[in-house]
Amino acid sequence: MRIAILASGNGSNFEAIVQAVERGEIQGEVTLLFSDKKEANVLKRAAKYQVPAYSFAPKQFDSKEKYEAALCELLVKQQIDLIVLAGYMRIIGSQLLQAFPQQIINIHPSLLPSFPGLHGIKDAFEYGVKVTGITIHFIDDGIDTGPIIAQKTIDLDPDETLQTLEEKIHQLEHQWYPKVIANIVRRRSNQI
Ligand code: GAR
Question: Quick one: pLDDT band at residue 173, thresholds 50, 70, 90?
């Protein structure tokens, strides 16, 4: 199974997934990393693990549709079976959704449908929640919406800070995103 990871930022989830592949826990290969941000740290991590990396930004195109058409063409050409969003901070448009039905998953650092968007951890923390967590889901055309695959929770400590919560959330993500991907790959490989 050929997996593509799309990311816009740091890439810690990218690295956790690639390490799980290297340990043989995910029966697939990370065939490519795409970033819409040329300066994103995830590109350095891709180089470190020798994962072929591609990067272009919407502003290089006349329209968002053309940007997405180029991304779609890349993923189709590379015969990608599963698209994993790992901190990819853009809405996926209809072209990609139609080309890859039930093949695009996302991770979000809150218990959706609460606190979608760019700042899930901070928004939940500032709201004063006592429990938060992570959500892994198939995507649709909304922001952090679509059928939920898995959720994991964290209880906030009385002396929790935003920083300690961020660390806990990221640990949970690195533990569970590879496991969920491994399950999806296993199930789908058995269907073929
Ligand atoms: C992760 O916490 C992920 O859940 C979040 O971006 C971070 C990326 O971290 N995604 C979203 O907020 C999606 N709305 P990383 O670049 O270190 O993997």
Answer: very high
Residue nearest to atom 9 of ligand 1 (CA): 87
Residue among 16, 35, 45, 42 nearest 182 (CA): 16
Q: What is the pLDDT of residues 90-105, one digit of tens each?
A: 999 999 999 999 999 9
1 is in an annotated binding site: no
Domain assignment of residue 79, given as a range: 2-191
Out of 41, 140, 170, mutate this one to test ligand 1's pocket (max ligand atoms within 8 Å of CB): namely 170
Q: Give the residues across from 134 on adjacent strands.
A: 152
Pick the atom of ligand 1 nearest to 170's CA.
2
If you average pLDDT over residues 172-190, what whole number do you get? 96
Residue 18's domain is classified under what CATH number? 3.40.50.170
Distance (Å, rounded) from C-alpha 188 to C-alpha 106? 17
Domain total of the chain: 1
Is 91 annotated in some ligand binding site?
Answer: yes
